[in-house]
Structures are given as C-alpha cells and as structure tokens.
Amino acid sequence: DAGVIQSPRHEVTEMGQEVTLRCKPISGHDYLFWYRQTMMRGLELLIYFNNNVPIDDSGMPEDRFSAKMPNASFSTLKIQPSEPRDSAVYFCASSLMGPNNEKLFFGSGTQLSVL
Amino acid sequence: KNQVEQSPQSLIILEGKNCTLQCNYTVSPFSNLRWYKQDTGRGPVSLTIMTFSENTKSNGRYTATLDADTKQSSLHITASQLSDSASYICVVSSPPKLIWGLGTSLAVNP
Which pLDDT score, from 0 to 100, does residue A1 have? Predict the structure, then answer.
C-alpha cells in the first residue's frame, strides 16, 4: 500500500484566496483525520471522519475552514478565504479503528504559506 | 487541564551514544500512551503504544517505559544513529481525545 497520500506537498497563496488540500487514506481504513502543525502549538486535530461521516469538528478554527469526505478514498480540506495565520503544515492521517484504539498513519503533509 | 509536557525541548548527541527523552502527563481519563517519530518534512510514524498495564515496550533500539502512578514516560534510544535525528512526540489517549506533546527535537551528530 502506498500509505496516506496528500496533495499538494507545498502551496503558496495570497491572502483571500481559496485553498484546497487533498487526501487519499489507506485503503480499508475507516477513520480519517485532518491535523494542523505549527511550532507554537504542535499537532492540533481539526476534524475526523468515521465511514465518511464527520464525527468531531470541534477543532476547526472557524467558518473559513470546511472538510468533506465524499467517499472512502478521498477527502478535502478547504480554506476560504485564506489568511496569513493559516500558514502551517496540514496533515491527513487514517486508521483502522478509532483514534484511541489504534495508531494513526500520517501522510507527508501539505506545507501551506499564505502571503 | 489535560496536558502532555516533554523534555528536553531539544537535544544534541554524538552518534553511538544513548539518550532518554521524557514525557510527563496530567491527563484523565487515561487509555494509552504513544511515542511517534517525525522526520523533517514527513508525517509522524508510530514507535510504540503502551496501555495502563504495560510498563515497558521495545521497538528495535527504542525502548519506552511508562509509570502510570507518577504519570511519566520515557523513550530510551540505544546506540544512536544519524537516522535517529528527528522530533519525538509523546501522545496520551484520553477518550475521546488524543493529547499531543510538542515534541523533543533530537540531533545526532557524527
């Protein structure tokens, strides 16, 4: 298996633009997670899905952020409009079981820079 | 407040030497504790998972310990290699949440 695949690897955009990050989880994994990582705050859970259904979105910063999982093999995280404070590394992860019972498999991340 | 604190923040050692990284947590309820390794520019990779009843677990040259009474864990790296240079993150499972530490940045120099 190729692991969790994220695209793009790097994204540079201007404030106010829409940004879409993409993720393909490991086949057969029922859980998908979106995390944001910064030096100051470390890894923060934004949202996670179980069987394509959002379970916990309490970490989504504000209405500018939205996430979808239209099928078991694809998810998107969208930021509209983007702001400089959104600059961070965004990780997608997947797991067979729930986050408390199973290790997470992470993608390589998307480095987002909002100018 | 649920917290996971790691020390030191950063560490530099010479290749071949051993080192120990610390993790203290104030988390309730507690389900398990994990250590992840994160190479620069990559996502974290799981090293170990320990439940309440386990006090040590090894993965090659990595050995994690857990003292549930004092709420402390350590990650010991034996005979370090250049490839051990990475960030090591302690994570405590407190259902329904995972509480992440900020990590220890380890540099192994030749």
Answer: 65
**Residues B89, A99: C-beta atoms closer than 8 Å:** no
Distances, alpha carbon A56 to alpha carbons A33, A49, A59, in Å: 10, 7, 8
Interface of A with B (CB under 8 A): 4, 42-45, 56, 91, 93, 98-101, 103-109
How many whole angstroms separate alpha carbon A108 and alpha carbon B96? Answer: 25
**For every residue of A90-110, which 3-state class applies, written as one string?**
EEEEEECCCCCCCCCEECCCE
Question: Cβ of B34 and A42 within 8 Å?
Answer: no
pLDDT digits (tens, 9 = 90+) for B22-60: 999 999 899 999 999 999 999 999 999 999 889 999 999
Which residues fall within 8 angstroms of residue A45, CB to CB, at 6 or more apart? Answer: A33, A34, A35, A56, A59, B97, B98
DSSP code for B83: G
Best mutation target among B93, B94, B104, B105 (most A Cβ atoms within 10 Å) is B93
Number of Cβ atoms within 10 Å of the Cβ of B2: 13
Alpha-helix residue ranges (DSSP H) falling in A1-115: none
Q: Evaluate the CA torsion angle A97, B70, B58, B105 in order and state its sign.
A: positive
**What tens digit of pLDDT does each residue of A72-90 get?**
999 999 999 999 999 999 9
Could you tell me the two tokens for A76? 């998107």
